[in-house]
Amino acid sequence: MSKSGIATYNKRTNELEVIREGESTKRKIKCTNLNPKSEKVHGVEIDGDEIYVLAGPNSNDRPNKKYKYSFRSLSGGGSNML
After folding, report:
1. Which member of 5, 23, 39, 53 lies 3.0 to 4.6 Å from 67 by CB, making a disulfide possible if both were Cys?
2. What's the half-sphere exposure (Cβ side, CA atoms, 13 Å) at 41?
3. Residues 65-81: pLDDT tens digits?
4. Is 31 exposed, middle or buried (CB count within 10 Å of its CB: 0-12, 13-18, 19+)?
5. What digits encode the pLDDT tens for the residues 4-39?
6. d(Cα 31, Cα 15) in Å, to the nearest integer?
């Protein structure tokens, strides 16, 4: 897996904070398809240009959804069930 940068999830603002490889500027991606009031974020994975936010209902101890974002476009794509 090659990395295209760093990504962290900020629950307070419901955004991904990303720094693309070779840059020093922190950029933000709104996580509009993720609801932090009913879903818990379990982690963030990076696979090349793609950023995956692993989430599930607050009542679950394990994620059951993967929200997909991109370093290249700095936007969200969709979600998949795990």
Report:
1. 53
2. 20
3. 999 999 888 777 677 77
4. buried
5. 899 999 999 999 999 999 999 999 999 999 999 999
6. 5
Q: Establish how many alpha carbons lie within 13 A of residue 28's alpha carbon, considering only the half-sphere containing its beta carbon.
A: 9
Reduced 3-state DSSP string for the chain:
CCECEEEEEECCCCEEEEEECCCCCCEEEECCCCCCCCEEEEEEEEEECEEEEEEEECCCCCCCEEEEEECCCCEEEEEEEC
Instruction: Give me 41's structure tokens.
Output: 């974020």
State how far the Cα of 65 lies from the Cα of 55, in Å rounded to an integer.
5
Region class of 42: left (phi > 0), else alpha (psi between -120 and 50), else beta: alpha
- Distance (Å, rounded) from C-alpha 11 to C-alpha 22? 26
